[in-house]
Amino acid sequence: MSNGIEIEVKFAAKSATDLLRLPQNLKTLGWDLSDPNDVVMNDYYLDTPDLDLLQSGWTIRLRRASEQSKITLKSLAPCEDGVARREEYEEEINWDGSGSVAFPEDILDGRINDLVGEKTLWLLFQVEQSRTQYISTLNECTAEVSLDAVRWIYNKRSMNGYTAELELVDGSEKDILETQASLLKDFDWKLSNQSKFEVGLDLYNHF
User: How confident is the model over 52-82, as pLDDT tens digits?
Assistant: First the structure.
């Protein structure tokens, strides 16, 4: 199981072509980038019928990608100036992506059980993502760069969007914050102050 504080900066993009500006912009700012890795991810956000997790300030994401499945428990701290700092706990699970899934009481060190007890978890909404990913380095900082074409799905309705993220993997967040400022000032990037969960929740609430 992995746990810690997730720190990432988030940007909105108008199109898939717009997303492709980011790797070159980062190189201009001195970042070294790995070869790209493309992955398709299916995310399922879960809660109880009474939305106990949401009311407690948490969300559960079940992710299926590259024939592997993970469950993630995230705090719902809001973005501030395009920077997300969230508590996060993650664990691989045995699930083939079809049908229901049962979680043992001790998964994520019992944190889910502590929040919802024996209540049923059901699907809030689904998020499909086509992601191009890079590992990038600058000075002593390592970050994961993600370019995402996103489709949110709820009750046979859907909406599409594009986001870019720069997530701290190792080192100080100083380089990421300075890069964010340069991308906004010199390359006309726009902040995204909504997480994918918040966009999906809007879709859930309005339909």
Answer: 999 999 999 999 998 899 999 999 988 888 8
CB atoms within 10 A of CB 200: 23
- DSSP code, position 80: B
CA separation for the pair 35, 161 (Å, rounded): 24
- Give the chain's domain count: 1
Give the position of tokens 């504080």.
5
Q: Tell me the pLDDT tens digit for each residue of 14-46.
A: 999 999 999 999 999 999 999 999 999 999 999
Residue-range definition of the domain harbouring residue 35: 2-206
Q: Which long-range contacts (CB under 8 A, 24 or more apart) does 120-124 make?
A: 120/48, 120/49, 121/46, 121/47, 121/48, 121/60, 122/46, 122/47, 122/48, 122/49, 123/44, 123/45, 123/46, 124/45, 124/46, 124/47, 124/154, 124/200, 124/201, 124/204
Q: Check: CB of residue 173 under 8 Å from CB of residue 7.
A: yes
Q: Is the dihedral of CA 124, 193, 183, 17 positive or negative?
A: positive
Give the CATH number for residue 17: 2.40.320.10
* 170 to 41, 75, 163: CA distances (angstroms): 24, 20, 22
Whether residue 34 contacts residue 107, with contact meaning beta carbons closer than 8 Å, is answered with no
